[in-house]
């Protein structure tokens, strides 16, 4: 395993562990999701170099587009939940109450 693979797997694993264990604030959950998407983008961008293909692949650009949409949606939810509930603590949100 090369150091590139090790750093990619370590970044994805650390961000998923952060998402699993540090879920007190919505902003920390969103940051963990963004770091997961960034590590997947780096992995998809390095994949043609590792396989030595000459054709460019559109998949990393498509994933970066979806990541930007996810970030915008997450920040909109953060602002809306902070305005309605007063904070971004995840334990304040009740999914059963509309």
UniProtKB/TrEMBL annotation:
Nucleotide-binding among keywords: no
Protein name: NADH-ubiquinone oxidoreductase chain 4L
EC class: translocase
Gene Ontology CC annotations of this record: mitochondrial inner membrane; NADH dehydrogenase complex; respiratory chain complex; transmembrane transporter complex
Pfam family, one: Oxidored_q2
Reactions the enzyme catalyzes: a ubiquinone + NADH + 5 H(+)(in) = a ubiquinol + NAD(+) + 4 H(+)(out)
The enzyme's E.C. designation: 7.1.1.2
Function: Core subunit of the mitochondrial membrane respiratory chain NADH dehydrogenase (Complex I) which catalyzes electron transfer from NADH through the respiratory chain, using ubiquinone as an electron acceptor. Part of the enzyme membrane arm which is embedded in the lipid bilayer and involved in proton translocation.
Keywords associated with the record: Electron transport, Membrane, Mitochondrion, Mitochondrion inner membrane, NAD, Respiratory chain, Translocase, Transmembrane, Transmembrane helix, Transport, Ubiquinone
Location of the protein in the cell: Mitochondrion inner membrane; Mitochondrion membrane
Family recorded in the similarity comment: Belongs to the complex I subunit 4L family.
Topology versus the membrane: Multi-pass membrane protein
Lineage per the UniProt record: Eukaryota, Metazoa, Chordata, Craniata, Vertebrata
Residue stretches spanning the membrane: 6-22, 29-49, 61-80
């Amino acid at each position: 395993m090369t150091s590139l693979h090790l750093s990619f797997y370590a970044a994805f694993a650390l961000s998923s562990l952060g998402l699993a264990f540090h879920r007190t604030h919505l902003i920390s959950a969103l940051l963990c999701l963004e770091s997961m998407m960034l590590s997947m983008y780096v992995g998809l961008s390095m994949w043609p170099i590792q396989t030595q293909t000459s054709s460019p692949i559109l998949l990393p650009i498509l994933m970066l587009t979806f990541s930007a949409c996810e970030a915008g949606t997450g920040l909109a939810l953060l602002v809306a939940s902070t305005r309605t509930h007063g904070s971004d603590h995840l334990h304040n949100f009740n999914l059963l109450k509309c």
